[in-house]
Predict the structure.
Amino acid sequence: MSTKVRSLLVRADALEGYFSSSDSGYGGLLSMLGESNHIEETSSAREEERRKREEEETLRREEDAKAKAEALKKEAEREVERLVEEDRVQALRQTQERDRIAQEARIAERQIELSWMAAVGLGVPSLRLQIAALAISTDASSASASASASASSSPDEKKRFKLAINALHTIVQQIVKRPEEVNFRKIRVSNEQFQESVGRYKGGTEALVSLGFRVEEMVVNELGECGKVLFLKEPNLEREMDKWGDWFELLKSGLGLLAEEVEKVKRK
């Protein structure tokens, strides 16, 4: 029996040695279990790290996309601002160019007016020439109208010169009676009544210019609108007495000559 016990003890020792030293023993089994857990933990950590990287990459891409979109938006806004500014500058240049052309046209027109008024001259001799031109132009107009209308002239056509000379006489007479009244010394060039009786005939407007009237750009109504006006400026009586005297004397002389023409027309 002791032999059997010893045999059992030997086998027990052998088994104990096996489990304590061999990888296939209990220690090895525990080691394998530990390594398995470590592998699983490592795999999970790697998976978590990969997921984080993917999230970070997604977030970075989103931020990049937002940044690009914002940059494109700002670029578009700048482009719109640039185009608006270009349009504004272009419109301003066009306006300035139109104003420049209009100003040059006004200057050229004014030069023509000044040259024309200078050519008409000032004084009674010039008035005589303009009355003669007026008589010719009214007759020519009457003859032209008669030829195109009928063989007989209408009363209106025969009285063109009479109407014109009477209108001029009335204008000057009103000024001589009340030289301080500005409205008597200002005639709108486009006035229909003036154009019908005087302005459309050669010598009509010129007759007034010979008495001192000048073509000016002036306010013509309460709305502040401007237009061409025949204006006779009165010298200051207190500061320019001699000049005023000459001015008024010319008007009286012109009125006398016009009165003579009115009487001649009445006798015809």
